[in-house]
Every structure is written in structure tokens, then in C-alpha cells.
Amino acid sequence: MILLLSKSVFAESENIIKTGYFFPNFSLAGPFFKNDKSYLGLTEQKSYSLDSIRAEFILIEFFSIYCPVCQTHADRFNHLHKLIEKDDFIGRSMKMIGIGTGNNTNEIEYFKKYFNITFPCISDPDFKIHKAFKEPRTPLLILVDKRTVPYKVLSVLDFHKNPENLLQDIRNEIYSMQSRISKHKTISLK
Questions:
Q1: Domains in the chain, ordered, with CATH?
Q2: Rg, C-alpha atoms of the chain
Q3: Residue 123 pLDDT > 70
Q4: Three-class SS string for the chain?
Q5: In principle, which of 57, 77, 112, 139 could form an S-S bond with 117, CB 3.0–4.6 Å?
Q6: How do residues 134-172 score in pLDDT, each as one tens digit?
């Protein structure tokens, strides 16, 4: 039996949101620590949405604290977040968040502390966000382009890859998108 799947085959076979899909602007439920708010560029208002995040691109990890694969990949995703922050090409234009499917704020806080999660995590205790995305299995990494309205999914990433390879995939997706936009602008100016 062959288990080699590309990211597009994986996305299509699992009936989840796919590259090119529109991505809804959902509300963000904390807990937001001071560092999280600063990182995301959130002001001191009471409620937030995906619109509130000051970034052109958002890397979203769907996870559950009860998912054993999510637990084993927690260090890997932390390392990816640190690589993104240090990267000159995407570090300023991208933010990373986690969405805890079926997890309440206390569970999220525990998970963040236990695994020393370095990026903001949002609770989705009633599975509203999870259901809006066709109830994907966890973990799932999605790269979202916030420069479009409505937002678009640039890529569904293969979470099995090591953080350095994931970073390169993200860089390639963003570079490819920017090249297509530049090419389109050049053609339309002629």
C-alpha cells in the first residue's frame, strides 16, 4: 500500500477546506495574554475577529488538546512559529494562531502552559469554527491570504514535514502569489 500523498491529494481526500476556498472572517475568543495581543496587533476592545489581526497572511493550526498527534507536534509547531518570526521575507507580514477545536479557554491555557506554546491560541468550545471548515481532522495547517476580500486559502500544508521544510513551503506559496499579482499588474498596465 502506498501512503505518499501530496498536500492537494490529502486535502481533497479528507473533504476539508482546500486551496483557493474562501475563508470566513470568524470571531476570536481568547484567552489573549498581553503578549498575544501585542503579537497580533489587537487593540483594547472587547471582541475581535480575523479582521482585527494585523497581518497580510495568517498561518492557522487547527488542533485539539485531546489529539495525540497534536500533542506530539506541539514542539514542531512552536519551532515553526519561531522560524517564521525570524524570517526576513515573511516575519513582518505573517502571524500564526491556533484554534482549539472543542476546547474551552481553561483547556487552551493548560495546553499552552504544558507545551510552552509560543503563539496565540483561540478556543472553539462549541465547534462553530471547526464546522465552518468542514470539520477537518486535527492537526491541520492552513495558510490564509488576508489581502483578498473575502480571504482565500493559499495552501493546506503537510504538517508531517519538519519546520524548516514547512517554512520553505510557506515562503514558496507567498512568493508565488506575489509573482502572479506582479505579473497580472504588468499585463493590465500594457
A1: 15-189 (3.40.30.10)
A2: 16
A3: yes
A4: CCCCCCHHHHHHHCCCCCCCCEECCCEECCCCCHHHHHHHCCCCCCCEEHHHCCCCEEEEEEECCCCHHHHHHHHHHHHHHHHHHHCCCCCCCEEEEEEEECCCHHHHHHHHHHCCCCCCEEEECCCHHHHHCCCCCCCEEEEEECCCCCEEEEEEECCCCCHHHHHHHHHHHHHHHHHHHHHHHHHHHC
A5: 112
A6: 788 899 999 999 988 888 888 889 999 999 999 999 999
